[in-house]
Each structure stands twice: as structure tokens, then as C-alpha cells.
Amino acid sequence: MSDSAVEDADANAESGLRGPRMVGILYVTLVAVAGAAGLLVGVFVDGLRAPRFLFLVPFPPTPLGFGAYGALTIALVLGLPLVLVVYVSRNLDDEAV
Fold this sequence. Notes:
By secondary structure, the chain is mostly helical. The protein has three helices and two strands.
């Protein structure tokens, strides 16, 4: 490992950006970016129809509606696999493998 890589690893360890905390920060950041992208679509694109969350729940075709739709969709799409990974990693018996 090069000296700069070791220094970067030490800096990350000192700042607390490791493991589950880093994954949580990344998850929240991605959900916020999706919400902002939905908001921007609602602001700059004309003639949009109302989105339906999970094909069931209609959202208003406003910037706020598209922002909420984007954030909720990404939260669900990324959150379910993340919850499954956490569940399996905590409950998988290492001896059974």
C-alpha cells in the first residue's frame, strides 16, 4: 500500500466514516439527490403526468410531488436490499456455511 493510501485510510478511520455509518451517509445522500432530481424535473419539464408510487399512490404533478416521488422510490429501491443485507449479515450462522 502506498503512503497516500495509508494516510487516506487513517483519515477515514479518524473521521468515523467506516462501515455502517458510511453506508448510512451514502444512502441518505442518494435519497436526497433523487429527491432534488425529481424536484428539478418538476420545475423544468412541462406537460408531465402525475407519477404513481408503486403504481398505486398518485402524487401531484408539482415539483414537490416529483421530488417526493423520486426520494421515496430510491429510498425503497435501495432500502429493501440494504435491510436484507443487514438482516442476513446479523443472523447468518457462520457454522452453517
